[in-house]
Amino acid sequence: MIEKAQEQARIILEALPYIRAFSGQTVVIKYGGHAMVDEHLKRQFALNVILLKYIGVNPVVVHGGGPQIGSMLSRLNIESTYCQGHRVTDEATMDVVEMVLVGKINKEIVNLLNLNGALAVGLSGKDGRLLTAKKLEMVLEKKDAPPEIIDLGKVGEVTEVNNALIESLHAQGFIPVIAPVGVDELGETYNINADFVAGAVAASLKARRLILLTDVSGILDKDKVLVSSLNRGQAVKAIEDGTVTGGMIPKVTCCLEAVEAGVEKAHVIDGRIENSIILELFTGRGIGTEITL
């Protein structure tokens, strides 16, 4: 028993330099994928976030909910269509998106954090004008024809983040939990990609870290081997040469935008691994891919 206790003490002491480095800093975490579905992983995620708060880190949680939205749309017999990875969002779909993200998922996460010892507050972009947005304009380039403008409906992008609201919640000891729904100057509601909301929030706050939880181990090279670290040039090259493809492209893009805006490092990690956030932040090598300037 003494040896086991000594091992636990050693692990805590090894984490001390990282705890010291992150104390007082802001970490933005995009919560999504399998970690939002598996009950054990959901609780472990909550405990990781609460631990960060207890040691002096200021965590901000931004969550997704694509599968849950899709399930509700199916139950309501509303067909989902996609273009370039974006859900085309008409008025009826937007109502469901807001209902699921803000009314259901957001409150479930807040409740989970509160039940495990935190003080969490759920927000959408409408609360305190947290996320000002505009309609996302998508242009589809064609090889032998003029570019085509794609109307995605009520799909938006972040133009401004109300830092004062987040900072005031941190000052009072609360953990902000943000649903990726924004509003424009005229009060129109928009569905926004959660990765890009997390990146915009991290950039606006000049967060120390941006962490994206995914269902893959991180960014893989052409031989499907995990790449532990990429600088900006290497990440851009990986997109251009086809090493990074599909749904990983917007994740890498949002990480690049965040570090270019002042975030020290962005991380793409496997949320299916228990305690993935702590392993990435408080160990020397981490478990995923970090992106830097």
Write a compact overview of the structure shown.
This protein has 293 residues and is α/β, with parallel strands linked by helices. It contains nine helices and 16 strands. It has one domain: 3-Layer(aba) Sandwich (Carbamate kinase).
Key terms:
293 residues; alpha/beta; Carbamate kinase; eight-stranded mixed β-sheet; four-stranded mixed β-sheet; 9 helices; 16 strands; globular
What does this molecule look like?
With 293 residues, this protein is of the alpha/beta class. The chain has a single domain (25-219, 232-288), classed as Carbamate kinase (3-Layer(aba) Sandwich), CATH 3.40.1160. Helices cover 41% and strands 23% of the residues. The protein contains nine helices and 16 strands. Strands 5-10-2-1-13-15-16-14 form an eight-stranded mixed beta sheet, sandwiched between helices. Helix 3 (66-75) crosses helix 4, helix 6 (194-205) runs parallel beside helix 8 (248-260) and helix 7 (232-240) packs antiparallel against helix 8 (248-260). The longest helix is centred in the middle third of the chain and has 25 residues, at 91-115. The protein is globular.
Strand and helix map with partners:
Elements: H1 2-22, E1 26-31, H2 39-54, E2 58-63, H3 66-75, E3 82-83, E4 86-87, H4 91-115, E5 120-123, E6 131-135, E7 138-140, E8 148-150, E9 155-161, H5 163-171, E10 175-178, E11 181-183, E12 189-192, H6 194-205, E13 209-214, E14 229-231, H7 232-240, H8 248-260, E15 265-270, H9 276-281, E16 289-292
Parallel strand pairs: 1-2, 1-13, 2-10, 5-10, 9-12, 13-15, 14-16
Antiparallel strand pairs: 3-4, 6-9, 7-8, 11-12, 15-16
Helix pairs in contact: 3-4, 6-8, 7-8
